[in-house]
Design a protein that fits this description.
The structure is a single chain. By secondary structure, the protein is of the alpha/beta class. It is built from 5 helices and 7 strands.
Length: 118
């Protein structure tokens, strides 16, 4: 079973992603703040990170850059989701492997996750 870590502050989006991805047989762990994310169990790494850009205590692009600099997580795909940012800007501001604009189509999200974690 593949593991997905989601960093998303909007409860509805976080819960919907967690539920839908669980139905697809992913082990999903979610975090609502950068602080909670940084306090995660570092002995376990997911198969993919899904990060929102605008968070109450930081930015998903900054978290993405930190993950890509860490040897333990630099190889793990990062997908950025945002209602405000543009894909080309996000890809340039951090080394994300993919981008999803909100509102998103869950089938599109599933295809992108499968492509990044195959």
């Amino acid at each position: 079973m593949k593991t997905i870590y989601i960093l998303e502050d909007e409860t509805g989006i976080r819960d919907a992603l967690q539920l839908l991805l669980s139905f697809e047989n992913y082990d999903v762990r979610s975090f609502s703040t950068v602080e909670a994310f940084k306090n995660r169990d570092l002995s376990v790494n997911p198969d993919i990170f899904i990060l929102d850009v605008m968070l109450p205590d930081g930015s998903g692009t900054e978290v993405c850059n930190e993950l890509k600099k860490e040897p333990a997580t630099s190889h793990i795909p990062v997908m950025i989701i945002s209602a405000h940012a543009k894909a080309d800007h996000i890809i340039k501001s951090c080394h994300a492997d993919n981008f999803i604009a909100k509102p998103f189509d869950i089938d599109d999200v599933l295809v992108k996750i499968k492509n990044l974690t195959h």
